[in-house]
Write a structure and sequence with these properties.
By secondary structure, this protein is of the alpha/beta class. The protein has 2 domains: about 1-180 and about 375-390, Glycogen Phosphorylase B (Rossmann fold, 3-Layer(aba) Sandwich), CATH 3.40.50; about 190-370, Rossmann fold (3-Layer(aba) Sandwich). About 40% of the residues lie in helices and about 15% in strands. The protein contains 15 helices and 15 strands. It has helices at about 20-35, 75-85, 115-120, 130-150, 155-165, 190-205, 230-240, 260-265, 270, 280-290, 305-310, 325-330, 340-355, 355-370, 375-390; strands at about 1-5, 10, 15-20, 40-50, 65-70, 90-95, 110, 150-155, 175, 215-220, 245-250, 275, 295, 315-320, 335. The strands form 3 sheets. It has a 7-stranded parallel sheet, with helices on both faces. Strands 12-11-10-13-14-15 form a 6-stranded parallel sheet, with helices on both faces. The chain has a two-stranded antiparallel ribbon with strand order 2-3. Helix 7 (about 230-240) packs across helix 13 (about 340-355). The protein starts with a strand and ends with a helix.
Length: about 400
Amino acid sequence: MRIVFDARYIRTSDTDVLPAGGIGRYSYQLLRRMRNLDEDLKFLLVVPAGNGRPIFPESDMKIREVSCQFPANSFSTLYRLAEKIDFCGQDLFHSPFNMMPGKLPCPSVVTLHDIMWLTQPHLCAGFWPERVLVGALYQKGIRTALCRADHIITISEASRREIVRYKPEIVDRISVIHHGMESFFREIEQERVEALLAPLWSQIGMSGEKTTREIILCVGQGSPYKNQARAIQGFLGAFGKRDDIQLVVVNRFRRFDWKMRRLLARERAGERIILLDSVTDEQLLALYNRARIFLFPSLVEGFGMPQLEAMACGTPVLTSNRGAPAEISGGCSLLVNPENVEAIAHGLVELDQNEELRCKLIAAGRKRVQDFRWLDAAEKTMAVYQAVMRISG
């Protein structure tokens, strides 16, 4: 079987693989496992122009690469990709990031992580010009995928329900395949945690007793669905009178947010809340281990990988009582209404002060992460490929 896989979320330098965000990690981890599942399986990877080394330099002719000049998320992907890639002899195309090109000459599979741009665009971007311009692209890409893909993979039952509710006729050609969990995220020694964080604290000008405060950690990006404004309000409601605890917000992709700016302008709020535009993977690992609580109050998610990463690092999680966050938590997180600031604040206090609950959730979280394996995801994805090929003849 010959697969064209759009791997443009996986960038490389001359020495390293640099997956971009959750979709990049998803693509890379799937490919790592799938390439070894079947001796007859061959991949043609569409990679971003400017990549350094190959994604899998040790591979022989099982994996080839072809570079693409235009961005993954672009109208050029929708209208020109099929013309730019030589599909001769290829059996199937897989897009792992919501965008399905038109005029493909072979069967296709698309991974729809969510359809928020169709159902709740106001949660995708708070800045209305971005919502209109970027929304037009994503809405076209997702609608094309829903109409033209031979099979749709999504990553949670919550996402599947939302997709089927939006387009009921695709119910027989959609599968749920959960993400796996990377072994990189794990519990590490306290000495290493402090050593990894020392350069980060120095970089942002934090020193002295501030570096020893307890941490409530948020990881995500600035889109409204991440609910960071309520996370900050909940934190201030829970710990506003305490100087020994601070909120650290890691924004993997910073977006302009007036509401956030107003919150941070409140008296002393800026001293208690640390916004980090980006951190290295090792610094993120250290932050998960250092955190007393991981706060993940998303309004909507396709999956919600950060809460599993926190569980793997032995940190108790406070998350939403709805959708994918509740599903993926599997009863191993404290659930609250993400639209209720008082509920978030109460949950934070409970998880900080109730040692029995903390121990219970930490132990349950360690077991929960073992349910998510990338090899399982790869095998199920391969089964989808095979089913599509059988149906397509």
